[in-house]
Amino acid sequence: MTDTENRKVFIFGLDCATPQLVFDAYLPELPNFRRLMEQGMYGEMKSTIPPITTPAWMCMMSGKSPGTLGIYGFRNRKDHMSDKLFFASSKSVKEPLVWDILGGAGRRTVMVGVPQTYPPKPVNGLLVSSFLAPGKDSNYTYPADLKREIDEVAPGYMLDVEGFRTDDKARLLRQIHEMTDERHRLVRHFLKNKPWDFFMMVEMGVDRIHHGFWRFCIPDHPEYVPGNEFDNAMLDYYKKLDANLGEYLDIVGDDTTVMVVSDHGAKTMFGGVCINEWLIREGYLKVAGKPDGVVRPDRCEFDWSGTRAWGEGGYYGRLFINVEGREPNGIVPQPEYDGLRNELIEKLTAITDEKGRNIGTRVFRPEDVYPEVRNVAPDLIVYFGDLAWRSVGSIGLDRVITYENDTGPDDANHAQHGIFIMRDARAGARGRVEGTDILDVAPTILKVMGLDVPGDMQGGPVF
Questions:
Q1: Phi, psi (rounded to 5 degrees) for 344
Q2: For the segment 408-437, what is each residue's pLDDT rounded down to a tens digit?
Q3: What pTM, to 2 d.p., does this model score?
Q4: Is 112 helix (H, G, I), strand (E, B) or coil?
Q5: Segments forming the whole domain that contains residue 428
């Protein structure tokens, strides 16, 4: 065998791990992260637009944008005939992924917790799906009988914590640590006892602790109180991740290429913008009667004869236009489509907080940020306050600016840049690097392992 045929790659994936903590604030307490950074290269990694778990991990592993995958978040419109959304799954991914290419070349893969791998598809190796599986009673592994081994090795294995948007912070913190401990136990077992050329794990606890504890730990959050009982919750958790990483490094050895990556970062969330309330106030959306209380948009009846646009909530805003001849009850003539989008962009970017200060909203047209646009993309992608404010989709709040989350307590929003660290003997110790993109990861893996990079991948190797 050649050197590249013997080459192994281990990926330590951390959903939502964020540069300002890993590379700066927490770095003195993270000796194993620091060791990797000193031995290789590291830097901020630009995520997808939008920076959402689904589809970001699949974009990372395909080397292709959300537009090419046709996946724009956890929930997507199936077609233009309905305003209802469906959840994206592994079945939604039609492009080849890194492990598909590696499997075709005879390389074995082990995966644990990689988002959007449920339901599991056959791989040349082992697959333990992610938090998007409905539960441990489901067929969440490949092969299916792998579940029995998981129950023996990590009997308390958790796909996810229960309800991370909760006020019961003590229970949540305990569950996050238990979930991470059990996943660590399983990963360590697989690393030592299973044959693999490519090993990838993703820990979801980082995302959960950010959303649940940001205001307790990060001084720039307006509700942060120094010395509170959870003041060190996030630092202590990152220290646990660092200890786990140290064990993995000891197992895989210095000859294995190691990457530490996240799908996006995190930042303080100051509040929410009620996108549909704003559209109603501005005359773009008309509802058929005042809703009884606060309701999700899919439970509110729209008057389509008077609706030119409607929106969806989440970490970013999705805005759809009721186009004549495209939507069933469309009223916006096709020639007016671009003009209406420009009008909406101008108004959205002018939104202010309650004190009249512009919050710095950014708006994207899909065709401007993706090489191609498949399936049903939002007509406009909205980063309220450049992701410092979330999009609140519910109707009935009777206000545009809110400081209450309609899906439960949540302190952090996603940020555009995650982390990238790589130790590889051929790349050498290059220190901090700039300009790494999430679409560069898949081509880099293939190059390291001596395989040709497909010409339709939209990123490129980092060295």
A1: -65, -40
A2: 788 899 999 999 999 998 888 889 999 999
A3: 0.96
A4: strand
A5: 3-267+414-448
